[in-house]
Design brief:
By secondary structure, the chain is mostly helical. The chain has helices at 10-27, 34-37, 49-70, 72-75, 78-102, 110-135, 139-153, 155-168, 173-199. Helix 6 (110-135) runs antiparallel to helix 7 and helix 7 (139-153) runs antiparallel to helix 9 (173-199). The chain is globular.
């Protein structure tokens, strides 16, 4: 993606580290005592264990793959880039569908549930548009849609950054969703769309 931050860029380094750290931290729920490390999700183990497991596996995997999609080296190896992209798309599809399957067991408000529901739908939509554009050979548009997809995937990081001051102020993880269920991905999308307009690339999408 011409013009996008690359490996020597401090922003790219910070983004990559944060993606990997959050991905690894999320995977800890697969090996550590779940009721201790993810107490706010433990109620999903009753009746929603399969979608919960899928979300904990594939959501972090998609996040861990985000830096790879920005890395110029992957695009110098078309075969490697395509297979990594396919894994990224598949991971998002499974993570988003599993999150939708878990919504009936969600214990928060309708407002926050709507935020997560909307995120799952546009996550699938933006990623799907990126895949379609690649299959059509429209690679400039493919890059733009995958940038949007990456912004939505990065919501996993933004959500946790937003949670920190709210929890310091005394809110529970569930209470923080009043802000983060919408803010975690809206902030990212606004930033991406602003960048696209600034670069003069928004019209290509």
């Amino acid at each position: 993606m011409s013009g996008l931050p690359q490996a020597r860029n401090p922003w790219f380094v910070a983004m990559s580290i944060s993606c990997l750290l959050v991905a690894v931290a999320s995977w800890r729920g697969l090996v550590a005592p779940f009721e201790q490390v993810m107490a706010h999700l433990v109620h999903y183990t009753e009746g929603y264990s399969l979608p919960l497991f899928a979300h904990l596996v594939f959501g972090p995997l998609a996040l861990a793959l985000v830096p790879f999609q920005f890395w110029k080296g992957s695009r110098r190896r078309p075969g490697l880039h395509r297979w990594a992209g396919r894994l990224y798309v598949l991971s998002i599809l499974l993570a988003a569908i599993s999150s939708l399957a878990m919504l009936p067991g969600y214990q928060g408000s309708a407002w926050t549930g709507a935020g997560f529901f909307t995120l799952a739908l546009i996550w699938i939509g933006a990623t799907g548009m990126g895949l379609v554009r690649a299959l059509q050979g429209r690679f400039a548009e493919h890059q733009i849609w995958m940038l949007r997809s990456a912004a939505l995937t990065f919501a996993a990081v933004t959500l946790r950054l937003m949670m920190i001051p709210l929890m310091i102020a005394g809110q529970t993880p569930l209470e923080t969703y009043t802000v983060t269920a919408w803010g975690s991905w809206l902030v990212n999308l606004v930033a991406v769309e602003t960048w696209l307009v600034w670069r003069g690339r928004w019209r290509l999408a």
